[in-house]
TrEMBL record:
It is a peripheral membrane protein. InterPro entries: ATP_synth_F1_ATPase_gsu, ATP_synth_F1_gsu, ATP_synth_F1_gsu_CS. F-type ATPases have 2 components, CF(1) - the catalytic core - and CF(0) - the membrane proton channel. CF(1) has five subunits: alpha(3), beta(3), gamma(1), delta(1), epsilon(1). CF(0) has three main subunits: a, b and c. Its main location: membrane. SUPFAM superfamilies: ATP synthase (F1-ATPase), gamma subunit. This is ATP synthase gamma chain. The keyword Membrane applies. The keyword Coiled coil applies. Keywords: ATP synthesis, Cell membrane, CF(1), Coiled coil, Hydrogen ion transport, Ion transport, Membrane, Transport. One of its GO terms (biological process) is proton motive force-driven plasma membrane ATP synthesis. GO terms for molecular function: ATP binding; proton-transporting ATP synthase activity, rotational mechanism. It comes from Thomasclavelia cocleata. It comes from the Bacteria.
Length: 285
C-alpha cells in the first residue's frame, strides 16, 4: 500500500506541474487575444474608408464599369486559394476545422498560398498542386509590406488571365467562444458585396475615369481585406488556445481531486491495517 500511495503522490505532483504550464499558456493566450483584438479594431477605419470609396464608384458607374477586377476569367479553370492556419498547436479544433473546410474544395490544379506552418505542412502533404509558402509567417509578423507583395502577385495573375478566381480561407471571430472557418471570394469583386454600405448623395467626379480609379483602388481594398482576415484568424487562434488551456486547467483540477480522494482512501486503509495489526498483536499476548 505505501508503494501505491507514493505512486499517487507522484501523479498528483505531475498533474500540478502540468497545470502550471497550461495556466501560464492561458495567461499568454489571453494577453495575445487582447492585443490582436485591438489590432482588429484599429484596422477597421482604413478598411471602412476604402470600401466606402469602392461603393461610391460602383454606384456612380451603375453597372457600366469595365474594370478587369469585376469580370471573371471564365475560360480559366485554375483558382488561387489563400489558406490561413496557425503556426503553433494546442489550440483545440482551430486547424482541424480549417482543413475540414477546404477538403474537396481545393482542386489539384489550383495554386495555393499557405499562411501558418500548420497550413504549409498540411497542404504540402495533401495538395497535389503548387503550395506557395513564402508568406508562411504572415500570421505572426503581420507585416503589411508582405501583404502588399502578396496582393501584387495576385492582381498580376488575375490581370494576365492566369487564374479565374481568388479565394481566401480564414477563421471568422464571433466572440471569445465562437469562431468558424469561412471561404470568401476576393476576385472578381462582386458589386452586391457593397450594397449594405450607405453612400453619400453627392455627385462625385473621378479623374481620369471611374474605371482607372477603381483599378487603383481595388488592390488597396484587397490589402485591407487580407490584412484584416489575417488578424481576425490570429484573434480566433488565440481565443481557441485560451479556451483549450482553460479546459486543461479545469481537467487538471478535477484529476487532482480524484487523485487526492484515492490517496486519502489508501492512507485510511493503511492506518486501519496498522491498527488492526497492533490490536491483533496485543490480543496474542
Amino acid at each position: 500500500m505505501p508503494g501505491g500511495m507514493q505512486e499517487i503522490k507522484r501523479r498528483i505532483k505531475s498533474v500540478e506541474s502540468t497545470k502550471k504550464i497550461t495556466k501560464a499558456m492561458e495567461l499568454v493566450a489571453t494577453s495575445k487575444l487582447r492585443k490582436t483584438r485591438n489590432q482588429l479594431e484599429q484596422s477597421k477605419p482604413y478598411y471602412t474608408n476604402v470600401a466606402q470609396m469602392v461603393a461610391e464608384i460602383l454606384a456612380n458607374c451603375k453597372g457600366n464599369n469595365d474594370s478587369v477586377y469585376l469580370v471573371e476569367n471564365k475560360e480559366i479553370e485554375k483558382e488561387v486559394f489563400i489558406v490561413i492556419a496557425s503556426s503553433l498547436g494546442l489550440c483545440g479544433g482551430y486547424n482541424a476545422n480549417i482543413f475540414k473546410e477546404i477538403k474537396g474544395v481545393i482542386k489539384p490544379g489550383d495554386y495555393v498560398y499557405s499562411i501558418g506552418s500548420k497550413a504549409t505542412s498540411y497542404l504540402l502533404k495533401n495538395h497535389q498542386g503548387v503550395t506557395d509558402h513564402k508568406f508562411d509567417d504572415l500570421n505572426t509578423t503581420f507585416d503589411f509590406k508582405d501583404v502588399t507583395k502578396l496582393v501584387v502577385e495576385l492582381t498580376n495573375m488575375y490581370r494576365q488571365k492566369e487564374i479565374s478566381k481568388i479565394k481566401i480561407v480564414y477563421t471568422e471571430f464571433v466572440n471569445n467562444l465562437t469562431f468558424r472557418p469561412r471561404i470568401v471570394t476576393l476576385l472578381p469583386v462582386d458589386p452586391s458585396d457593397f450594397d449594405h454600405i450607405e453612400i453619400s448623395k453627392k455627385s462625385t467626379l473621378f479623374e481620369p475615369s471611374p474605371e482607372e480609379v477603381l483599378d487603383s483602388l481595388i488592390p488597396m481594398y484587397l490589402q485591407a481585406v487580407i490584412y484584416g482576415y489575417i488578424i481576425e484568424s490570429a484573434t480566433s487562434e488565440n481565443a481557441a488556445r485560451r479556451t483549450s488551456m482553460e479546459n486543461a486547467n479545469d481537467n487538471a483540477d478535477e484529476l487532482t481531486e480524484q487523485l487526492l480522494l484515492k490517496y486519502n482512501q489508501a492512507r485510511q486503509t493503511a492506518i486501519t491495517n496498522e491498527i488492526s495489526e497492533i490490536v491483533a498483536g496485543a490480543n496474542a499476548q
